Amino acid sequence: TNWINGKTALVTAAGQGIGRATALAFAAAGARVFATDINEATLAEIEGESGVETRKLDVLSDDDVKAVVGEIGHVDVLFNGAGFVHGGSILEMKDEDFDFAVDLNVRSMIRTIRAVLPSMLEHDGGAIINMSSVASSIKGVPNRFAYGTTKAAVVGLTKAVAADYVAQNIRCNAICPGTVESPSLQERMRAQGDYEKARAAFIARQPMGRLGEAEEIADLAVYLANATYTSGQACAIDGGWTI
Ligand code: NAD
């Protein structure tokens, strides 16, 4: 189906990486897209793309979320892209880092879903797509305690929302990527000191022998927006990491 054609989509973390690719892919599929991010400079780079409007939105702020959703009015498709990777094991993790990971990786999705759901229910349904990771309930990944724990929570919240609203035509699914080329991945590789070594290690995790592209993940987001018989799924897209 091309259910998304003519629908209104709200995309968070659309300034770069998977969120940006998804905002552009939704627009190419015929949606009216509100591409949002905390970073106005990166958003400015996609302002003016056909079908795309940009808005500053900090998903850590309930007021911000309510204001942007209030301005848009009805949202048919919500893409929750915001997320942050903390390194470290349970013993290395700082409590404040865990609190931040819960707030950005999990509570942000609760804020946006609460803001769009009432109108989706009034309008006979909608599609919600949440960014999780294979580093979640799917796979334990070394050195990713806060990340894996919060991304597992994303899978749980996805299934809980799907279960509560399946009869009202709300579909809620999660995307669980392996390692995907993105500006923040570049930062993490540079931060390790030896960029080439860090890059080789990330590639070595992927049996396909390469990193994923943001556009490949965006294709799955479009599929899930259009997947009118699919809800509550955690869809791995991981270069073979979990074969
Ligand atoms: P990225 O990390 O490069 O970009 C993240 C974006 O989020 C930035 O534009 C940033 O400005 C925005 N952001 C940060 N805080 C925000 C806030 N408070 N409010 C609104 N926006 C905010 O992008 P990416 O690497 O493509 O990751 C996107 C999502 O995909 C994340 O949830 C990430 O955990 C998940 N993911 C990424 C990978 C990967 O390998 N890149 C793998 C699995 C899952």
Automatic annotation (TrEMBL):
GO terms for molecular function: oxidoreductase activity. It holds the Pfam family adh_short_C2. It comes from the Bacteria. Keywords: NAD, Oxidoreductase. InterPro entries: NAD(P)-bd_dom_sf, Sc_DH/Rdtase_CS, SDR_DHRS6-like, SDR_fam. Belongs to the short-chain dehydrogenases/reductases (SDR) family. This is SDR family oxidoreductase. It comes from Flavimaribacter sediminis.
